[in-house]
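Intended use. Records like the one below are meant for learning the mapping from a protein sequence to its folded structure. Do not use them to infer anything beyond what is encoded.
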Amino acid sequence: MNTYRVRFLLGSVLALVCASSVQAGSPPTVDVRSRAALVVRADTGAVLYRKNADQPLPIASITKLMTAMVVLDAKQSLQVPISITNAEIDRLRSTTSRLAIGTRLPRGDLLRLALMSSENRAAAALLRNYPGGQAAGVAAMNRKASALGMRQTRFVEATGLSGENRASPADLVRMVRTASTYPTIRSYSTTREYTVKVGSYATQYRNTNPLVRNPQWHIDVTKTGFLNEAGRCLVMQATIDGKPVVMVLMDSVGSLTRIGDANRVRRWLEASAHSTQASARN
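Structure written out for the chain above:
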């Protein structure tokens, strides 16, 4: 056998050995298609994946997590009824709502609808009824953001309909981790379906994050968002492979990309954990 042939065979064997060791011991990579993303261990703060994580972006209805926190911080009764008025009509983007003007619901129901189904009129009514009114509520949102170290964040209203509500993925991780400490937000944001009476009709709402209905997921807190300038966004804290993980996925193109990204990240984390365990055994 000539020298070239021997070298070729040795090179092929070495390549196969290296490939086997990569498959057995190295964690796989993940293809996140959202424009900006950050994945962090909620308990330790360890960064697991980042992409444009320090870039401030419009956050759309992710805003409603902060709206919910300041409403709960004010310790207003969730049983007190609030009316939907003309003040809740969206004059910025002319979006519609199934909460007709004159609808009267307990504050708790409006909070649940704002979180689980991203009801804009519900969120606007909550902040209009904040102590001191809407301006005081927005000021409270910005104060809380500052206290949480969200240095690239600004809120101008309660719903996220304004593109001026902006934050970086790094800031949103802080917000989600804090939101997860509120039992009400954990419960309301992950409610699968909820029915309220609007006028004489029972109106059913569904969670805007379909993953809450997927038995493979264990989600503690979640919120979706969409504006033309923000793209489709998704934040959540979930338990993956027994560990709490915060995902922030911003500016996804298409209705399914953010959900696809979340599933890809979960599978990647699970595969990485199994790869690490296999390496430890070897």
